[in-house]
Design brief:
It is a single chain. By secondary structure, the chain is α/β, with parallel strands linked by helices. The chain has a single domain (3-337, 368-398), classed as Rossmann fold. 39% of the residues lie in helices and 19% in strands. It has 19 helices and 18 strands. It has helices at residues 3-14, 19-28, 34-37, 51-54, 57-72, 90-102, 104-109, 119-128, 130-134, 208-217, 224-227, 239-251, 266-270, 305-314, 325-333, 339-342, 348-362, 382-386, 389-392, and strands at 17-18, 79-84, 110-116, 138-142, 168-173, 182-185, 188-195, 198-204, 235-237, 255-261, 263-264, 279-282, 285-287, 298-300, 303-304, 318-319, 323-324, 372-378. Strands 2, 3, 4, 5, 10, 16, 17 and 18 form an eight-stranded mixed beta sheet that branches. Strands 1, 6, 7, 8 and 9 form a five-stranded antiparallel beta sheet that branches. Strand 7 (188-195) and strand 8 (198-204) form a beta hairpin. The protein is globular.
Length: 411
Amino acid sequence: MSLREQIEREIRQRGPIPFSRYMQICLYDPSHGYYSANAEQFGKAGDFYTSSDVHAVFGRLLARQFDEIWQALDRPAKIEILELGPGRGLFARDVLDWSNKKFHDFFAALTYTLQETSPALRAKLQETLREHLDAGRAHVGAGALTCPAGRSPAAADIHRSLPPDAPLIVFANEFFDALPVEILSTNGKLHIAFENNSLRETWLPPLAEELEFLDRYGVHPEPRERIDVDDDDRIEVPILAQDWIRQIARSIERGLLVIVDYGYTRHQQLAGRYRGTLMAYRRHYASPDPYQAPGEQDLTAHVNFTALAAVCEQAGMQCEKLLTQSQFLMGIGETNQFADAFEDCRIPQERAKVALQLKHLVTPIGMGETFQVLTASRGIDPARIAALSGLRFGSSSQFSASDAKTPATHN
């Protein structure tokens, strides 16, 4: 049974399904979901690429930052990095290899856990990280974002390798943008129905918690004539992302959370930006049509950083300033003039190539301004957190979720 047939059968049995359910099936169905069925989505030959596909320096710089965090925690005998959605494991391999080469004491204390839902990607991780897995330095576990029959996405779940009292660094690079979202418009909450042998959109009343989310962390959809658009104003409501960040915050008794993703703050939405960010990606081409090829294209939505920060603060964590990826990486790399990137270069041509790759990671015309970095900590001296190299560069303003507490009016 194809993925589209599976979706059609569920709609016949249960009635119209929320868009979040449709998105979950498309991405995470165990047999035919986009992330479950294969491990070839990444890189230039796939549908998209991440920072780790550009150059190993991304992982090397983060290894340097993780070592600083370990030192800020007073060099504990054991520390765990938990990476959510590690894909093929290139980032983890770069972090582990560079830590082993440059930060021996940190590496000796490190346990690296990779939480991945896709069976195909877990198999790929076994290949990529075989040396570190065999040595017991890395562990691969399954995530909880499976696709059982039902209307709602599965609950978030965190799986650690070390006991809860061991210091923890949670790292999530392009994880939250791939979590299923609800979509609201002035017509209601988006559902998917099946009529006349085709999928079609229909609108049903939203839940109270979805409207409350927009009150606190976002904006409500406006009539098209008010905002001068040709189609319905659509706003994503990432309820599942809130569940995940809540579980993550609870899991960090002492340590740090680092989220790297593309997204926005509530202030930016109030200014009229980032409305209707859902996109489909296939073979490096973007499309606003999520129904064109179920299971064969990536579906993503920009991340609401105000909402994520608010949950962290409610859980007692301290959120640091929101930085661009450019500011974060420049702060880490400026101390040694990005020697982590150029160490392996033997001839000028190699150095020139690496310089272009580094430029793509840190400049506005590349990925540097597209991606944001949110960090939150618990149980670490705030002065030590502020001194981390990745947080010293760029704006000195403190990012807070306080703007999320101002209600927005809605009809």
